[in-house]
Specification:
By secondary structure, this protein is of the alpha+beta class. The protein has two domains: 37-133, Immunoglobulins (Immunoglobulin-like, Sandwich), CATH 2.60.40.10; 136-247, Alpha-Beta Complex (endopeptidase fold (from Nostoc punctiforme)), CATH 3.90.1720.10. It has helices at 3-26, 136-145, 164-173, 183-189; strands spanning 37-38, 47-48, 52-60, 71-77, 85-91, 97-103, 108-114, 123-124, 128-130, 132-133, 203-208, 211-220, 223-226, 235-238, 244-247. The strands form four sheets. Strands 4, 5, 7, 8 and 9 form a five-stranded antiparallel beta sheet that branches. A five-stranded antiparallel beta sheet has the order 14-13-12-11-15. A hairpin with an 8-residue loop joins strand 7 (108-114) and strand 8 (123-124). Helix 2 (136-145) crosses helix 3 (164-173).
């Protein structure tokens, strides 16, 4: 073969090799080949604001085989129109399960997300909703506060007018707690709570010579919600004396 022809073939081979190399360099990474599934177990709801809930779920691959030592994220959002945020992360164990704790501060939706690897596809669990609610005592206080301005009427237990024990009974009923009707019977039904352990929502019983004559709902900061007397209305008032005992129904 003439020398010029050999040179032309060599040049064509070099060009072909260069083109193929460029083609392979530009090709994207191959897609992951293992389909995965992430589950999320049911969570308690509602829970008290500030409580800790541990979210658990399993990550599996082909044939439901557990995927171990994989990082997963616990994500939450306040509503469907809000973006997901990572609360914290965990690692799957020998059974493909992860347990990730979170402190519940608001009502929110939760899920566990796996971002995948070069071999494993990403996966997202179903969504679980957890409702957050105030402690029972604070909900009793809120129920009493919602009656502010309603007139006192002896023997009345709501919803438009109250006497003192009618208000305490009504406020507890709004959070699912049944109390006796009179302040004397309410005092008899509840164990004593030390004043040093008083919390919002506790009942304060005022007595004269051993006979209970008035009751209110402790609101904190030396104040209580009460229906004081004829001609008055449900209102937040100062605790004016130390001559009272404390009971708790929640």
């Amino acid at each position: 073969m003439p020398t010029s022809a050999k040179r032309r073939l060599a040049s064509a081979g070099i060009a072909c090799a260069a083109g193929a190399g460029a083609l392979f360099a530009a090709a994207p990474d191959a897609a992951a080949i293992v389909k995965t599934q992430q589950t999320l177990d049911a969570a308690p709801t509602p829970v008290t604001t500030g409580a800790e809930v541990t979210f658990t779920g399993a990550l599996t691959g082909l044939g439901d085989r557990p995927l171990t030592k994989q990082k997963v994220d616990l994500e939450w959002r306040g509503g469907q129109d809000q973006p997901w945020s990572v609360s914290s992360s965990g690692t799957t164990d020998a059974n493909g399960r992860a347990a990730i704790p979170a402190t519940i501060t608001v009502s929110a939706e939760w899920r566990i997300s796996y971002h995948g690897t070069r071999v494993n596809d990403p996966a997202v669990s179903p969504v679980v909703g957890v409702q957050s609610q105030q402690p029972a005592g604070q909900r009793v206080v809120d129920a009493a506060a919602a009656q502010a301005g309603k007139p006192y009427s002896y023997g009345a237990a709501g919803p438009d007018r109250f006497d003192c024990s009618g208000l305490t009974q009504f406020a507890h009923k709004q959070v699912g707690i049944d109390l006796p009707r009179t302040s004397r019977d309410q005092r008899a039904a509840l164990a004593d709570v030390p004043k040093s352990d008083m919390k919002p929502g506790d009942l304060l019983f005022f007595a004269n010579g051993g006979s209970v004559y008035h009751a209110g709902i402790f609101a904190g900061d030396n104040k209580m919600w009460a229906a004081p007397e004829s001609g008055d209305v449900v209102r937040l008032q100062n605790i004016w004396t130390d001559a009272y005992t404390v009971g708790r129904a929640w």
